[in-house]
Each structure stands twice: as C-alpha cells, then as structure tokens.
Amino acid sequence: MSTLILDPDEAWEVVKRSAEASLARDATHSSPTHGREYRVLDVQNTKVTIERTGRNGVKQRKPLTRNAVVKMINILNDYPSGCPKEKSTKLITSRTC
Question: What is the DSSP letter of 46?
C-alpha cells in the first residue's frame, strides 16, 4: 500500500487560490456546527486574513499563514494515519483532527 504524500507548497497555493476566488465573489461561508460565518478580507503571498463572525455578532480577524498550512501538511505527511493533537496547532487541530 502506498502512502499519499502531499506537497506543502501546492497545498498553500490551493488555499490561496480558493481564498482569492472567495474574495473576488465577496462570499460568506457558514459553519452550521459552530454557528459562525467566515469571509476572506485579504490575500497576500504568505497570509490570508479571515473575518469570523460569531453567534453573538462579534467580528474577529484571524490570519491563516502559509507557515501554518505547510506545518500541518508536513505533520499529515509524517503521520498518514492521523495527526496527533500534540503535534498540531490549536487553529488547525480544531478543524482537521
């Protein structure tokens, strides 16, 4: 059985292109599980800034950096059966593990 190895740079490019498309459409994304809405505010070469609106209407800006994506992809490549929570960041753990 072969193990799929993800390319960290390609993964960041996918994130960045998706964020650019979302920004161009001024799209708002909803999370029914968490009751939050998300909107891309800015896309740079190494960072995507996201506005998160909570159930209470409070807006927060949250960055998603290239380094965070690359780190998580490298962890996933090192642990193909699932990433251990102690190896991942709080931001990504809550969404992927």
Answer: S
Asked if residue 26 lies in contact with residue 37, where contact means CB atoms within 8 angstroms, the answer is: no
Cβ burial of 65 (10 Å; 0-12, 13-18, 19+) is middle
Q: Which of 33, 36, 34 is nearest to 50 (CA)?
A: 36
For 57, 68, 70, 79, the CA distances from 40, given in Å and listed in that order, are 17, 17, 20, 30
pTM of the model: 0.76
Overall size of the chain counted in residues: 97
Euclidean distance between CA atoms 25 and 7, whole angstroms = 27
pLDDT digits (tens, 9 = 90+) for 73-94: 888 888 766 666 666 555 454 5
Token readout for 27 is: 């799209």
